[in-house]
Design brief:
By secondary structure, this protein is mainly alpha-helical. Helix content is 71%, strand content 9%. It has a three-stranded antiparallel sheet with strand order 1-3-2.
Length: 139
């Protein structure tokens, strides 16, 4: 499973670079913010959800903010906290990156396995992910 994951990720990263798009971790952050309520994610939650250190998340958000894809908003309920907020440019970049990302997933997984097997594996991995969430939250 880890070898397959590494191969797919390498393929996605290569395809993004070839298309002149940002690296995969940018997509991960943009997608996490996109799916958050109001399309904004508290920085601490973002770091935890992406398994990044808070410092690593801050540096990555700095780069995304410099590129105009995110902006920071101070948390009104906590003067120390910040939210990462998706911009229109970030939404557009996410669409461009997904076009490349999804093509690689389709070409790699569906073409290799067939549609039914790919659905079965996706369903099984989804169940594993859901089962692992309570364990991770308890730590």
């Amino acid at each position: 499973m880890l070898n397959a994951h590494a191969s797919v990720v390498a393929g996605v990263e290569e395809a993004l670079a070839t298309a002149g798009l940002p690296p995969l971790p940018w997509y991960d952050v943009l997608w996490a913010v996109r799916r958050a309520p109001g399309r904004e994610a508290r920085m601490a939650d973002l770091a935890d959800g992406l398994t990044l250190s808070r410092g690593g998340a801050t540096k990555l958000v700095d780069r995304l903010e410099s590129a105009g894809l995110l902006r920071r908003r101070r948390a009104e309920d906590d003067g120390r906290g910040f939210y990462a907020v998706l911009t229109g440019e970030g939404e557009e970049m996410l669409r461009k990156m997904w076009a490349v990302y999804s093509r690689v997933l389709r070409d790699t997984l569906v073409e290799s396995l067939g549609e039914q097997q790919a659905r079965t594996i996706a369903s099984g991995l989804g169940r594993v992910n859901e089962a692992a969430k309570p364990r991770a939250a308890a730590r």
